[in-house]
# Entry
Amino acid sequence: YIPPTFPCGNVADFLRTSIHFSYVMQKLYVKLKKLGGNEPYGGIYLFGNPVFLVLTPEFAKTVLVRDFHYFMDRGIYFNEKVDVLSANIFFLRGSKWKSLREKISPTFSSGKLKQMFFTMFEVGQRLEEYLKPFADMKADLELRDILGRFMTDVIASCAFGLQTDCINNPQSRFREMGRKMINFPKSKALKLIFASTFQKQARMLGIRWNDEDVSDFFINVVRDTIQYRKESGLRRNDFMQLLIDMMEDENGDFTDEAKSGKLKFEEVAAQAFVMFFAG
# Structure
């Protein structure tokens, strides 16, 4: 392991605004490879927490596949009491993670994912229509922003069943909330690192992963979508429909109470959110 220094352990470089966390980890990886030779793993300190760092692809496969049942927890801070969206499949751990995974695994079968192809294809057609005038003029374009808007439309359509049209409307509320969700300031990044390092204290302090306005926005979007589909009888081949189907009781009504193999509203909202977050 790399000997730590107080109070940052081995990640003091992360406090410098000019260095991304991935580069901090890369430097630590290279240093451990030199220290350990062919060792498949080593240790670092993330502030006060000892962290197990995988150093070879072969051992990564052991962690992620063969012995995954020992390594299911990612160590990410969440506080479902004050931020229900943080209780998602990526953040949860232990028995809560296992129970949720058993419920939603059927939604990721290849057949059900293929059903979303035409939903994505429709967004692709809108992108083609948007780009055509620029292509005719042979104009230069900033593709990073355009593809970000395209991806926002794809995920919003698949995860929430909404046509946000961020491709043509860069100032869309959905796009705004998506940016706020992932591009948080350094002060918040440090707060979340503190929360991940001192999770018990962070829960006592009520630290949230998501800002309250972001959380409220996505919860309201999910609630409105479910209510609209319930009242109109509309069905779509998207991830949201798969989650909604898992909320229905025997009479086809929606319920906030979890039953055997069923999802609570908060769980549906959290899974839709993390699909958007990941996308």
User: Anything to note?
Assistant: The radius of gyration is 21 Å. The CA atoms of residues 120 and 154 lie 6 Å apart. Strands lie at 41-46, 49-54. The longest strand covers residues 41-46.
